Amino acid sequence: MVAPIGPRVWRESDVEGGTGRGGGWYVRGERAEGEARVADIVVSGAGLVGLSAALLLAADGHRLTVVERDPAPAPDPSEAWGDWERRGVNQFRLPHYLQPRFRAVVESELPAVADALAAAGARRFDLLAAIPDFVTGGPRDGDEDLIALTARRPVAEAAVASVAESTDGITVRRGAAVRALRTGTPTSPGVPHVTGVALEEGGQIEADLVVDATGRRSPLPGWVESAGGRPPVEEGDDSGFVYFGRHFRSDDGELPPVLGGLAQSYGSISALTLPADNGTWSVVLVASSHDAAMRGLRDPDRWTRTVRTLPLCAHWLEGEPLGDKVEVMAKIEDRRRSLVVDGGPVATGVVAVGDAWACTNPSLGRGATIGLLHALALRDLVRQGPLDDPRGLAAAWATATDESVGGWYEDTNDYDRHRLGEIQAEIAGVPYEPGDPSWETTKAMEWAVTRDPDVLRSFLRVAGVHQRRDDALAGPGVADAVSAARASWRDEPRVGPSREELLATVAG
Questions:
Q1: Which CATH number, 2.40.50, 3.30.1490, 3.30.70, 3.40.50, labels domain 241-329?
Q2: Which of 438, 399, 401 is nearest to 418 (CA)?
Q3: What CATH class has 39-237+334-431?
Q4: In this predicted structure, what is the pLDDT of residue 120?
Q5: How open is the CA angle 291-97-171, to the nearest 5 degrees?
Q6: Residue 209: which of 36, 73, 47 has the closest Cα?
């Protein structure tokens, strides 16, 4: 853990005769322990992660300029769903969920954001309270950790933007796209050192650090190569999933009863029922992108008929649809990139956060939460003062990324790979037998959640991004209960339509 720095930072005006670039930090003399220099930082991308990173860094006294390609100003959150266009975010009006860990971080680190989300109507959703006591064993100390604060993506982003744009030290420039990275004298032979950005509309911004938060479509590799650096190493491919979602609103602001988990598997499809803000929620069907028969789910009538065959989800249709079409998202990339290759950085003075670093299939709803944890890790690293050592910063950021969020990326990808394998086996009419003990443990844990209150809470801590699975299994009695479930989960009676029934429903 990095201890918070004190309120005092070195500025040019602090020392007689001092000089610093752009009124920045004083380069002569020594900084006292616990003090950090003020930096000029550019963040490219004004989404949830980019704005959160700016807020975290600004709270430590740094000067932030956030540039965003999309020109439309952030509206009042009450108008965001209907009026705001964000063409740079392809999932902007698709279903969205903020996990309990997201709430915990904003309440502790960004309380103004928590207040803005609440004022915008974000739902404080307590899944445990919605489950009968005979399943949960009744309320317990610590259950409050599992409460989410969630909203539709436009509403959440507008709320965060309202805080960022009124925060001293942050300038948000919309309609300003980065064209290239500006470079100066290299700090390592053959490695470009980034000193700012050049904008497409002309002009440039100097910076001590450039933060890429442009999301799934991040152009960072091209920027680095154009600056003379080696291309970052990337791993990943199309995740293999396609999403068909709709939003609904209730008359009284209440949610439908929760009869199962927010994510449920039904053979060759999955279903998500996701609470949101102001009495709204979304229902999503997830299929394999290679399952041509499921393309009929683009049709609202076929989509509705299919949801009605899912016994724990059908009642989530009992609301007013927000729009008359099914929103579809496909060609979703699972991708991770590294700016440190063969032990050396491809460029210094630039880092990637959130989906610009790694993006995953969104069915587990972890993207924004992982991105916020990554932004928090960046704030903590900058507190340690490595901006004075650009090469050291690049190495330290790679390590901090692996330690803070690398495992969450790997866990999510592992789950996705197996779930896609299950779907493909269902389509082929054969059992899914991957021979992976880790997957057996995951399935046994899912089976045991309705039978053991300790397993339920451990499972929700994993789902809510509080604990990774192996850590959660260390809870009292959890491993034993999950081990016992290994012999039973495959015998669970099937719920929902067979593959043949599903095909007939979708075909109409």
A1: 3.30.70
A2: 438
A3: alpha beta
A4: 98
A5: 120
A6: 36
Can you say how many angstroms the Cα of residue 63 is from the centroid of all Cα atoms in its chain?
A: 25
What is residue 459's predicted lDDT score, i.e. its pLDDT? Answer: 97
pLDDT above 50 for 370: yes
Chain length of the chain: 508
pLDDT of residue 361: 84
The domain limits of the chain are 1-34, 39-237+334-431, 241-329, 433-498
Phi first, then psi: give them for residue 241, nearest 5 degrees: -115, 155
- The answer to whether 256 and 211 are in contact (CB under 8 A) is no
Same fold flag, 39-237+334-431 and 241-329: no
Separation of alpha carbons 52 and 161, rounded Å: 9
Extract the runs of DSSP E, i.e. beta strands, from 200-339: 204-206, 209-212, 233-238, 241-249, 263-266, 269-275, 280-288, 320-321, 327-329, 333-338
Q: What is d(CA 70, CA 232) in angstroms, rounded to the nearest whole number?
A: 26
* Beta carbons of 334 and 229 less than 8 angstroms apart: no
| Angle (deg, nearest 10), helices 478-485 and 453-463 | 100
| 428-445 per-position pLDDT tens digit | 999 999 999 999 999 999
CA distance 450 to 133: 11
Residues 488 and 444: their CA atoms lie apart, in Å, by: 8
- How far out from the chain centre does Cα 407 lie? 14
In this prediction, residue 93 has a pLDDT band, given cuts at 50, 70 and 90, of confident
| 414: its two tokens | 């592992």
pLDDT, tens digit, for every residue of 244-257?
999 999 999 999 99
The CA distance from 60 to 293, in Å, is 53
* Residues forming beta bridges with residue 16, ordered by sequence position: none
The confidence band for 22, taking pLDDT boundaries of 50, 70 and 90, is very low
d(CA 331, CA 222): 21
Asked whether the whole model's pTM tops 0.70, one would answer: yes
